[in-house]
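Quick log. Single chain, no ligands specified.
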Amino acid sequence: MVNEIKDLKGPKGLPIVGNMFSLKLNELHKQIENWADVYGDVFLLDTGLFKHMVVTRPSLINKISTERPDYFSRGKKLNDVLREGGVHGVFNAEGDEWRKHRVLIAKGLDVKHQQSFYPNLVDKVNRLKRKFDAAAETGEPYDIQKDLFRFTVDVTTDLAFGYDVNTLEQEGGVIQDHMEKIFPTIFKRINAPIPWHKLIRSKSDREFDLAVQEMNKLVRKFIQEGREKLKNNPQLKENPSNILESILVAAEEDEEVFTDETIRGNLLTLLMAGEDTTALTISWMIVLLAGRPDIVDQLRIELDNIMLNSQGIISEYKLNSELKYLEGCAYESLRFKPIAPIVLHTALQDIQLEEFEIKKDQVVLTQYRHGALSEKYFSDAKEFNPRRWLKGSGCPVHNSDASTPFGSGPRFCPGKNLAILEIKAVISMLYKNYYVEMITPFNEIEEVMAFTMMNTPYKVKLSKR
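-> predicted structure:
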């Protein structure tokens, strides 16, 4: 039986405006989970202006992802808002334009480049360790997340642009001070039923404009220096050393696709995605591990066995493949706290997926966590259990397709392997060398949706093992 979207059940709203005024943007992901418990894993959400098809069913989410970019695109409103912020690159490009962008970005993030970059990553981990040493020396409550953001900025700018900004050893005025103003505003504008920012300029709108201006200034500097480097070293055109150089070489060959706007947009995309998502994943992982000392003990057994002669840091790239339990901790953290739990799509043409007839222009909202925490797809789904990701775990139900924090299909996140590598580098260094005590009460750390799923600020106390 084929179902039409209009026949779906969903939360009852008011006449004309529907559920528009009952939406809580900073906890929209949790609202969707609550509604899915009542109305099923596919339901209708009426926001007055649009009737959204909301999908939490993993099989249907994966089919929608697989049909991109031919049958689905990211929502038009998302693209418009991102372009307002100067972002036009692999994240929001579509069709053939996206395919060309994707090849370059994926190549710059492949295993070969990660291996050659690994000594640079180790340098950044050493800087972070010095910050941890200082925090452990004082024993004072420590805002660890602030330095995690700085770490991921340093890694991303070096890998992508060959530029060592060293924000970890700076105080104030660094990149993430601007970037933290961007994501929340983008999310707010995407989900606002009326584009109020075009009519009334609030303080957050002015801060957003300034942040975008500063980020664009920085990116233009990277581009200018990259072009100078290619001019002075023409041999790099045959073998670019970073993503920026690859994009600049491609721009010389295809100026229609790689305009100055798209070059800048791709670099902004890399900066924002590489900084925010990985730092938040590590941050959430620390919170989750704090509640499970038994798991931390098991993690340390693995670290102590593998890091015998490492001086507290995984200095050899090949050792990362041996960190199986740590990797399980990472995937289990992502199952509980996916950084991008909500993705909006727009149907480009009519298509039938499973029992649903989806018409052209239908807005489809996918929510990734509801299925990942369901007993239907994982045994003891509400238990934090890293072993479920290991071979021979003994878990009778384990559907890895139900937990896809990096997406699936052709637009699967190209930065997944780099993110896992950074997570392993930081978490192995942290738990090999320090005891981590949560100062902020666990129940006071909340989820906040702001394009990514952020946590409210917290502090820890570090002490040396």
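Residues 3-433 form a domain with the Cytochrome p450 fold (CATH 1.10.630.10).
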